[in-house]
From TrEMBL:
Taxonomic placement: Bacteria, Bacillati, Bacillota, Bacilli, Bacillales
Keyword check for Transmembrane: yes
Keywords: Membrane, Transmembrane, Transmembrane helix
TM region(s), chain numbering: 5-23, 35-52, 72-94, 100-123
Keyword Transmembrane: yes
Name recorded for this polypeptide: Permease
Length: 124
């Protein structure tokens, strides 16, 4: 996408959609599903890309450092997510299907990578 506004518009539309699904699931209109977390994750991704667009538009050294460090820190946070889910499932704190775990971990991974880049762009 070439404009920052496009990312922000799509991000807000997905955010509204995920809120609608969450509200509908809480009221019982339709069942809650882990796939709604992916819609929220895509919303976070597009809003983060909207924020990062001015920095990523220029292919400079700062952009490369933000991407590299973002992926580096995200790796350790994602490993924490894996160990947390392993512990929660082992001690039967949560009972969830394998597909549910994969969908939640995918959503957490997307959100972690892009939010870490936003945080690093503020720090660096």
């Amino acid at each position: 996408m070439k404009s920052r506004l496009g990312y922000i518009v799509i991000g807000f539309l997905l955010l509204i959609e995920s809120g609608y699904f969450l509200y509908g699931g809480m009221t019982g209109d339709f069942p809650l599903s882990p796939t709604y977390a992916l819609i929220l994750a895509l919303s976070v991704m597009f809003l983060s890309l909207g924020y990062l667009h001015p920095q990523f538009k220029n292919k400079d050294e700062r952009m490369k450092v933000i991407r590299e460090k973002g992926m580096f820190y995200s790796y350790f946070i994602i490993m924490f997510y894996f160990f947390l889910f392993i512990i929660l499932i082992h001690f039967q704190v949560i009972s969830i299907s394998a597909m549910g775990i994969v969908l939640i971990l995918a959503a957490l991974t997307i959100m972690t990578v892009f939010l870490s880049m936003v945080v690093l762009s503020l720090i660096l």
